[in-house]
Amino acid sequence: MFFASDNSGPALPEVLNALAKANTGYAMGYGADAEMAEVTRLIRALFEAPEAAVYLVATGTTANSLALATLCQPWETIFCSDVAHIHKDECNAPEFYTGGAKLTLATPKDADKLTVESLQAAIAAEGTRGVHGPQRGPVSITQVTEYGTIYTLNELQALCDVARSFDCPVHLDGARFANAMVALGCTPADMTWKAGVDAVSFGGTKNGCMGVEAVIFFDPRHAQEFELRRKRGGHLFSKHRYLSAQMLGYLENDLWIDAATKANTNAAQLAEGLCQIDGATFLHPPQANMLFVTLPRATHQRLFDAGASYHLWDGPLEGDPDEKITARLVCDWSLSKEQIDQFLDVAAG
Amino acid sequence: MFFASDNSGPALPEVLNALAKANTGYAMGYGADAEMAEVTRLIRALFEAPEAAVYLVATGTTANSLALATLCQPWETIFCSDVAHIHKDECNAPEFYTGGAKLTLATPKDADKLTVESLQAAIAAEGTRGVHGPQRGPVSITQVTEYGTIYTLNELQALCDVARSFDCPVHLDGARFANAMVALGCTPADMTWKAGVDAVSFGGTKNGCMGVEAVIFFDPRHAQEFELRRKRGGHLFSKHRYLSAQMLGYLENDLWIDAATKANTNAAQLAEGLCQIDGATFLHPPQANMLFVTLPRATHQRLFDAGASYHLWDGPLEGDPDEKITARLVCDWSLSKEQIDQFLDVAAG
Amino acid sequence: MFFASDNSGPALPEVLNALAKANTGYAMGYGADAEMAEVTRLIRALFEAPEAAVYLVATGTTANSLALATLCQPWETIFCSDVAHIHKDECNAPEFYTGGAKLTLATPKDADKLTVESLQAAIAAEGTRGVHGPQRGPVSITQVTEYGTIYTLNELQALCDVARSFDCPVHLDGARFANAMVALGCTPADMTWKAGVDAVSFGGTKNGCMGVEAVIFFDPRHAQEFELRRKRGGHLFSKHRYLSAQMLGYLENDLWIDAATKANTNAAQLAEGLCQIDGATFLHPPQANMLFVTLPRATHQRLFDAGASYHLWDGPLEGDPDEKITARLVCDWSLSKEQIDQFLDVAAG
Amino acid sequence: MFFASDNSGPALPEVLNALAKANTGYAMGYGADAEMAEVTRLIRALFEAPEAAVYLVATGTTANSLALATLCQPWETIFCSDVAHIHKDECNAPEFYTGGAKLTLATPKDADKLTVESLQAAIAAEGTRGVHGPQRGPVSITQVTEYGTIYTLNELQALCDVARSFDCPVHLDGARFANAMVALGCTPADMTWKAGVDAVSFGGTKNGCMGVEAVIFFDPRHAQEFELRRKRGGHLFSKHRYLSAQMLGYLENDLWIDAATKANTNAAQLAEGLCQIDGATFLHPPQANMLFVTLPRATHQRLFDAGASYHLWDGPLEGDPDEKITARLVCDWSLSKEQIDQFLDVAAG
């Protein structure tokens, strides 16, 4: 009953097989490996972007920070959600990599998503004081959001239009890119450059790799700067083939889509079951592979006692057992129906 | 005939097996995996340092930069060799991670190593102008050196004594730690804290891992700062078990020592063969797994034509065929006697 | 009718006289001038802080940024008001000088001041995610606030107590230190270390100097780091006596108190007059030398037409002439009663 | 007998008069003052550069660091002399402002100047290792050099040609710009853009101002970035008119040329006198306002005993009284013939 995170489960067997396959003979280092050439070809094809610059790094924080640093000057501010990973969970990595840029929080109060109005207002409020205030920088959109919800293609397009009207580039934090794409039933291009996105952190780690994320720039003029930033950040692997092989295994035969479909299906099954439980409510509508469900403390206590693993979102376990608090439940591809049923059984009491 | 680098060969099969073994069930992320606990236990035991803080990162540049940033203030200067990896091959990563520290080159002209005199003079010359000049910061020693030579334990001790006399901490760049240790026939402790080293980049990648280096601080008070720097640098792996497993496979059953022994033996065999070749000389005495051999251009041409792969050090292939130029030849554990003999045959002409 | 800023008027004649007096013979540079020794003596006496470390820089942004960088690690966040100068008006200087720290906005919605509750909540919400989120850093309090209001001594003490309970140091942005102190009728010590403040930006520029601010640390252990940060920021003046002389002229004979008293009195006279004007209201109660007054657009138009100079706060001049918008009116020591009366006459219509 | 530095003497009376003259009425802040408009006009005319972007800052370290940061990426290296102020005397300010660029020392051993050969070799040696090494960045030339010598116009042109051949921009550290120009008998344009210089730190402080330096970019496309860097560095003065007024007083009526002429003449008189002293030799030929003279320790002792003030360059005062050590003697405009004669009398013994 492991719902703590989609980075806690095992890697997909096919990814490990790809690693083993790559482990033969001598290979050029630092990204000049044959596997990387194939990864680039595949990603360009998938994204219908034959000119795109494609890079691999090992963590999501790195993908986000390097992509943003490439799009952002140190005197600018990045517009993002108040629960964005780049704001809450990267220990100031974007500030570090950009050389001291700021983050401006642009979500409406208690909302899970940026809105056209909130983003428009946030950008308009900056950049009005000459050199005194921070200048307008990139917009960073998280898809799937940190609340497990998904921007529709129309919403994405509208946010990108706002950004474009201020000449702000757009970054998409796609740590759960595949989960969103599967949920929307769209193509990679639909969810990125066709909507107006300039750079993508295309996650592999949470969806079954060991540790690999692609960074994709649709305008290849960003390539050289990114390469230098990657190197001086220590993120250029000498034995790069082991990053490439993971991504290759992940992309081949639609494995990435299958894994995300399983994870989303698992979450849907879990959500459906929770709906049957008396008094359970959702903080935000479940749309991908992550649920925020509100249950009485006593229920959480019962689940933890039974060995379930997940994070409480808005309160400690100690307190009034009848009071309701919210939990975050994340499903990955590896969960079995049995685990989910067991969880629901315990929750039902 | 692949002598280009010790990061071009395959990873040790045992390392991949360890990965596969770790790939079962759910594991806590971010370094809280069971494998990491075992790695820490093993490294503390190997280094006879029960209090040491031990961390894993994926690249040598990261290990060096994070270790140095933890030991160095932005207004200080780091003393190192003029061919140190941190100076020549990290695209200013140490400057980036330290927030703008300087590097002071402290080797005698054309020397492969720092000497007591050169280091003493370099440190003494800094820190004499109050707040105007850079302040004295850490000393970074590379073992095996970038010229393939090795500091004796007495030399290490003497350099650390110089550093200590100025209150400068000492970092050891041990990208080829195992090769040096095997060549010296000493213990990990001998080559580090017993000589006066404060922090070590303990390489795994060049000696048969896919991508993992340990950073070891003998004074655990550096732990918290390092952990925050690692996180904000994007170097904390969510699925950390895949770093741990590599290092575990590498350390268990003395695999790391065996691999380095093979690499050094390969290099010795190659050096011995080269000595028989008319006119071949060594720029620096071969001591570990890396040779700098001087041969006529025509010989290099013949080798390249036969498919050998390695780097020329001090001149282009084009030019007077009789003129001698120097090549860097690196051996890893995976080279076969046949490959070496074939190389020597071609070289002999 | 110049109410645009307290940095637009002339410098106090006594400050220029002090400059001229200092301009004789040779003087040691870089802060070793005799005038600086006297400044240090005076400030320590005024603040009843015989051990305090005292430095001079030329701008408020510098004073704030260097003080905060000395108190803050790059992985921390600074707690401040959402209209703090360090957040809105320094083009990311605190982010730059700290090496990438974050700023967390901790004021209640639409409030002019931090409150115990809002600060407590903001600090408590950070530092709960291990190495993932930013760590808790300094609290920066602006006195006089950017809305012209003043924290009482009790309020200051209570905020510092909150900070102390989380081990967060406290910085006071006292660009208008004298105006606040005069309004409170307290001593420099009351408003700083006795309340729990660790470091002060003690403004001179806005209150009649040409360009000088003191930075005061009550704990002298911060001295060396500050001195190195000042130098590498380019803020250590070679001919330092010209900074010292300004501050000396400013402090001698209570000139700084007289100037602030005049500025506050001017603002009080202006506020009193504005109260008589039909429909004029104050966004925040006038307490020092800065007013936020709400008037119909038509009134502003009349004032601008008559040559008044000041900033509109929340709307453009164009629009419905009857609609009310807010202006910021700042008084310095140099304004005459005639100018104020003239302004009021025009405003009255 | 004050020969310690050209930042120890008083400011020119005309500069103080200009300050007093500017101290009337209200003025726009942050560089929008009328005096600055006049400074820009004058500097553009003097440099025959009607499009140049012109800025004022208060210190030489600031001028150099901001100019270089505008010309340099964080992953580049700056080519300079091994005694350049930016390398030895700015506590890593260039590294700080550039976000972690490196400095490559490019002077021949023991030389006072960069040579075409040494610069060519230094630049050629960088930028050859792809993303691994630092990339080629700006060349910074110091005129007058830190050894008191002067690049001829031909030498400047030749160095700029080398830089240009590698697409490296050129910065001139002109802390003693006027002294060099007077010595060469050339125009400001001759010594800058006509030779190939892109950006100049045009010193005022050492030549009689209180604290002001101009930064001049001949290509105005650098303007916006410089303005943002200046602001976030804390170097944009709110009461900017007091920087402008200094520079205005300095430039008007050729005051700056007169002051430099006096300083150089004083140094020439001092050098001539020293030539008469038995055993006195010059480390480098005296060419501007700074001498490096070698004298027996006993002579230095006699001079210090008589109250002379200057820096010893290469040894402590303690030691063999007959051994010769070198002193740096700097002359400013304010020295009198009497002081120089008195110094020579004591030196003669």
TrEMBL record, chains A, B, C, D:
<feature type="domain" description="Aromatic amino acid beta-eliminating lyase/threonine aldolase">
    <location>
        <begin position="3"/>
        <end position="293"/>
    </location>
</feature>
<dbReference type="InterPro" id="IPR015421">
    <property type="entry name" value="PyrdxlP-dep_Trfase_major"/>
</dbReference>
<dbReference type="GO" id="GO:0016829">
    <property type="term" value="F:lyase activity"/>
</dbReference>
<keyword id="KW-0663">Pyridoxal phosphate</keyword>
<dbReference type="Pfam" id="PF01212">
    <property type="entry name" value="Beta_elim_lyase"/>
</dbReference>
<dbReference type="InterPro" id="IPR015424">
    <property type="entry name" value="PyrdxlP-dep_Trfase"/>
</dbReference>
<dbReference type="InterPro" id="IPR015422">
    <property type="entry name" value="PyrdxlP-dep_Trfase_small"/>
</dbReference>
<keyword id="KW-0456">Lyase</keyword>
<comment type="similarity">
    <text>Belongs to the threonine aldolase family.</text>
</comment>
<dbReference type="GO" id="GO:0006520">
    <property type="term" value="P:amino acid metabolic process"/>
</dbReference>
<comment type="subunit">
    <text>Homotetramer.</text>
</comment>
<protein>
    <submittedName>
        <fullName>Low specificity L-threonine aldolase</fullName>
        <ecNumber>4.1.2.48</ecNumber>
    </submittedName>
</protein>
<dbReference type="InterPro" id="IPR001597">
    <property type="entry name" value="ArAA_b-elim_lyase/Thr_aldolase"/>
</dbReference>
